[in-house]
Amino acid sequence: MDPPNSSFDEFSQFPPLHLQFFEPPPNPSPTPAPALHPQGPPPPPPSHPSHLLSVPVPRKRRRGRSQSHRNPNTTSFYLVPGPTTLQTPANKLEGSNPYTNSNSLAKTTPDVGEEIIVINKESTSEALTALSAGFPADSLTEEEIDFGVCRVVGGIEQVNYILIRNHIISKWRENVSRWVSKEMFTDSVPKHCHTLLDSAYNYLVSYGYINFGVAPEIKEKIPAEPSSNKLRVLIVGAGLAGLSAARQLMRLGFRVTVLEGRKRAGGRVYTKKMEGGAGNRVSALADLGGSVLTGTLGNPLGILAKQLGCLLHKVRDKCPLYRLDGKSVDQEIDMKVEADFNKLLDKASRLRQLMGDVAMDVSLGSALETFWKVYGDNGNVEAMNLFNWHLANLEYANASLLSKLSLAFWDQDDPYDMGGDHCFLPGGNGRLVQALVENVPILYEKTVHTIRYGSDGVQVLAGSQVFEGDMVLCTVPLGVLKSGSIKFIPELPQRKLDAIKRLGYGLLNKVAMLFPYVFWGTDFDTFGHLTDDPSSRGEFFLFYSYATVAGGPLLIALVAGEAAHKFESMPPTDAVTKVLQILKGIYEPQGINVPEPIQTVCTRWGGDPFSLGSYSNVAVGASGDDYDILAESVGDGRLFFAGEATTRRYPATMHGAFLSGLREAANMAHCANARALRMKMKVGRSLSKNAYSCASLLTDLFRDPDIEFGSFSVIFSHKNVDPKSPAILRVTFNEPRKKHQGDQQHSNKVLFEQLQSHFNQQQQLHVYTLLTRQQVLDLRELRGGDETRLNYLCEKLGVKLFGRKGLGPTADSVIASIKAERGGRKTSSTSASKSALKSGISKLKAGTLNQKMIRKAKIVRNGKKSISSNKLILLHPNAINGKVSAEHMVTNQGAPASSGSDV
């Protein structure tokens, strides 16, 4: 007989929950609550238990209270300590590595997957540093797996990669103002693991986990001008997500344009200067949007502050609470209610585990309020008011009414909390925005209303203006997406539309007040105020003192929950009057006069058309999966999304928005490279098969040659600067030629007759060959004109001249690479004259190739068969013993005459 379920019995005596059920979306695939919220016993450790160390990670603290008030539950992870003995896992079967050759001799150098390497003796501390950056200590992230950092997931090779990854992150964190190069680690990482070093370094740099920010040494890596061959990227929104993406893409050489609807950058991060008094002698900088850096151990904004030389101010733990009559809350009741409140959160977590998938349709508020009726001190008015204050604080943390917050997944991001102190940035977070904006091309007051995306590129419409690009990154807040004020053509996939609808997006407002002097206490940074009306529990429930960081006597009152929505329609004078009444009720009984504020500002984030709210949350019926869905790109890598509502790990935070921009910059670069590779392969496959396409492509590329001298022009790839890299040389024969005396003396009379016949039918003749870039430069430097150059080309170098199809697959690859580099760059009808200026050598007049030059061009005879007058057999570079396949025979008839003809 099974033992009774004590957990179920514990809840069976509760009165019925006031639940509001939501109809699930079609084909729901929610992740069960226990999987996303790791509570209870920790998961079993991975393989090699003797090498692992369990470390508890505290859960995320709630906003508005000190660190000591966080929920006591912890999550465990496992570290690979070092140094460690070399050991091969027991389950590693011989021959399981697909890269192992069973017939190979014994290796003198160990393989990356055979033993655990030792980099230094600080692997545990380095793992903690990597953890603060968002990396699990004992496994790979999905992002790393997709990047292909290891050949095989799991095993010793993965352990070695993790050790190298953690080491690189830690070394950069030691001095975040320097650019960390890969060469810094070649000595510390064993040579047989340099492939893992390459993989780890490339991944960390690509996704912006190292070498990001605004330090001078890092800013130097942004090129002054974008690469001519790079794609055009449009970014909608100049918030933290848009700015971080823009800077990263600019460093990669992309051509970036940011479109911002406001007159300023920063989005929901806005620092306003407040001033007044005689001669504006009193002033302060107020953060009206995002203000607190929540956790600084791995916070990228903390790294930016460090690069700027800013010292962060820790939000001190002390947070006194005051009753309606202005008196301090009884300390014993305060501690008891807070402990009871945290217990209720624990009970809610256990309840959702019992409920399973049904918990997705239940709100956190209904569970907590029902539990309070059973366990709470309902007979004590002060305890009830304290309970409502904690509910208001929870609504502040999630920008949502608790009645709309998902019981199952409201805290799904807790395991990814960065930890560390909550801090203010002296001078306001606008300092970060100001540093990120530097040299970023931003067009202000461009309200985007339409985004078109397709296989050929994107168009972004702002007013009557149309901006075109190759890709677009949309960073607008979730509230704007919910409103439908931006039309997407074609419409977004239903999967994404459903996620936008399911996710919650709430509201937080503020009243900023600049006083002539500080009349409140200076030994704390926050204090709270209780109310007896549950419907207005979030109205001015918490005050932030910015006197120590804003440069003046600044006080900010918060409005959360249902009160934040009512506040949107409240006249500012009424709001300020209410705040002053609360302050006077607290301080005047203490004999402290509360002066009239010099200046006040009331926010209206819900009515701001560019935000329509404050930040996201997991509403009833939603899950963390919806953040991932919102982050997905659409349109085959044309339309991307970033912002705090696109990051499952760090939603509703400034650093989450910043990191999402770095993430999407990497994704956009990856898609651009993949698209270029596909085009290169496609062009390479089609060139040898389609003479007309090949001719058209060559004609287009040679309209703007890289080098031009005389009747010679050259194109080559700019990515490969090796002097031995291949280049394509074209020789142009112009105009019908007059018969010269001595034509009968040519050693190759047949070829001359064929060329002469071609001249009589076409305006131009183009022949090609492959050279190295160094050979091209040597050829250009020769004196004596085209005759000397052609003699050098044919006699000294032994080069054969080919028609367009005779170049072969090697040249096809070069042509495809050049085409991919140039992308959609438009050529000018005056490109020939521009090329002449580039080369510094004037182009010779048409018809300068004389008889001696013609004599140097050689023909390959096919055995004893004669060659008809309208065909020329061209030598393929890979031809053996002078034999040429039929696919390299080009018929002159039917060649396009508009731009000249290639043989």
Topology:
Elements: H1 6-12, H2 33-36, E1 53-58, E2 74-79, H3 123-132, H4 142-147, H5 156-174, H6 194-206, H7 216-219, E3 232-236, H8 240-251, E4 255-259, E5 271-276, E6 282-287, E7 293-294, H9 300-307, E8 313-314, E9 321-322, H10 331-355, H11 364-375, H12 381-398, E10 422-424, H13 430-437, E11 442-443, E12 448-454, E13 457-462, E14 465-469, E15 471-474, H14 478-483, E16 487-489, H15 494-502, E17 504-505, E18 509-514, E19 526-529, E20 539-545, E21 554-559, H16 561-567, H17 572-587, E22 599-602, E23 616-617, H18 625-631, E24 639-641, H19 654-687, H20 691-701, E25 707-709, E26 712-716, E27 726-734, H21 749-761, E28 764-772, H22 773-781, H23 785-796, H24 808-822, H25 831-839, H26 851-856, E29 871-873, E30 889-891, E31 901-902
Parallel strand pairs: 3-4, 3-15, 4-11, 9-19, 12-16, 15-24, 28-31
Antiparallel strand pairs: 1-2, 5-6, 7-10, 8-10, 12-13, 13-14, 17-23, 18-21, 18-22, 19-20, 20-21, 25-26, 26-27, 27-28, 29-30
Helix pairs in contact: 3-5, 5-6, 8-19, 10-11, 10-12, 15-18, 19-24
Q: What does the radius of gyration come to?
A: 35 Å
Q: What structural class do you assign from the helix and strand content?
A: alpha+beta
- What percent strand? 15-25%
Low confidence ranges: 1-62, 66-108, 735-748, 758-762, 824-903
Largest sheet: 6 strands, mixed
| Physical arrangement of strands within the biggest beta sheet | 9-19-20-21-18-22
Distance between the termini: 90 Å
Indicate the mean pLDDT.
Answer: 79
Q: Percentage of helical residues?
A: 25-40%
**Global outline:** elongated
Number of helices in the DSSP assignment: 26
Number of strands: 31
Protein name: Lysine-specific histone demethylase 1-like protein
